[in-house]
Amino acid sequence: MKKIIFATGNQDKMGEIRSILSDWEMEIQSMREAGIELEIVEDGQSFEENASIKAKAVAAQVQEDGVVVLADDSGLEIDYLGKEPGIYSARYLGEDTPYKIKNQKILERMNGVPKEKRTARFVCAIAAADKNGEICVTRGTIEGYIGWEPSGAHGFGYDPIFYLDEYGCSTAELSPELKNQLSHRGKALFAMRQKLAEMAV
Predict the structure, then answer these.
(1) Do the bridges between strand 162-164 and strand 135-146 make them parallel or antiparallel, or are there none, so unpaired?
(2) Which of 93, 102, 106, 193 has a CA 20 to 30 Å removed from the CA of 156?
(3) Distances (CA, A) of 129 to 132, 182, 191
(4) What single-letter DSSP state applies at residue 90?
(5) E strand or H helix at 191, and its extent?
(6) Which domains does the chain have, with CATH numbers?
(7) Nearest-CA neighbor of 14 among 86, 85, 79, 72?
(8) Rounded to an integer, what distance in angstroms lies between the CA atom of residue 196 and that of residue 173?
(9) Tens-of-pLDDT digits for all 201 residues of the chain?
(10) Cα dist. 137→80, 89, 131, 175, 188 in Å?
């Protein structure tokens, strides 16, 4: 394997991915940096299915040998809301709706809910595909709860309202280094690194 193409155009996500994989000595490109422009319909019924759909679609555009496409599908599951927004996390209230508004809406829906019923988790599935369509998938999660107000300037998305009991703060208040060790995406990526090493891709 000489290069990874990550099937995303999200620059916040790419920054996190590059940080997590910083000691992996190979080129890591977003699909846009690799010159791949695709509209991918994510119509799977799980994080794993959606990640696989994205990885296969982008891998089908790759001509070079030694290139692996990685794709993730990730989101927030809130138990009190029936695991919403789940696989629709990025599209909750509309894809172009700022997360500040999404977070506020969730806090409004959770108004008056006691802490023991505010349990939630971030989930990330990472799929790897090569140009032949071979695929493998890993999954990472981090358990926490929905706080009562947004807090913190690190991270992105739902990080400001997702709190960790053991640290007494939101994931947006963690240092990027600590967040990468604990996060759902970090866990899924580290597991994928292990899988790819075992497969000698």
Answers:
(1) antiparallel
(2) 193
(3) 8, 25, 15
(4) G
(5) helix 184-199
(6) 3-199 (3.90.950.10)
(7) 72
(8) 32
(9) 778 999 987 888 888 888 888 887 788 999 989 889 888 888 999 999 999 999 999 999 987 888 899 999 999 999 999 999 999 999 999 989 999 999 999 999 999 999 999 999 999 999 999 878 789 999 999 999 999 999 999 888 999 999 999 999 999 999 988 998 899 999 999 999 888 877 665
(10) 28, 20, 16, 28, 9
State the catalytic residue, choosing from 72, 73, 130, 159. 73
3-state secondary structure 117-166: HCEEEEEEEEEEECCCCCEEEEEEEEEEEECCCCCCCCCCCCHHHEEECC
**What b/e sequence results for 82-98 when a residue is b if at least 16 CB atoms lie within 10 Å of its CB, and e otherwise?**
eebbbbebbebeeeeee
Mention every residue, 6+ apart, whose C-beta is less than 8 A from residue 100.
Answer: 150
Helix or strand (DSSP H, E) at 70? strand 67-78
Query: In whole angstroms, what is the distance from residue 182 CA to residue 32 CA?
Result: 28
Q: CA 3 to CA 16: how far, in whole Å? A: 17
| Distance in angstroms (rounded) separating the CA atoms of residues 65 and 84 | 40
Q: Judge whether 139 and 47 are in contact, CB under 8 Å.
A: yes
- Please state, in angstroms and rounded to a whole number, the distance separating the CA atoms of residues 97 and 91: 8
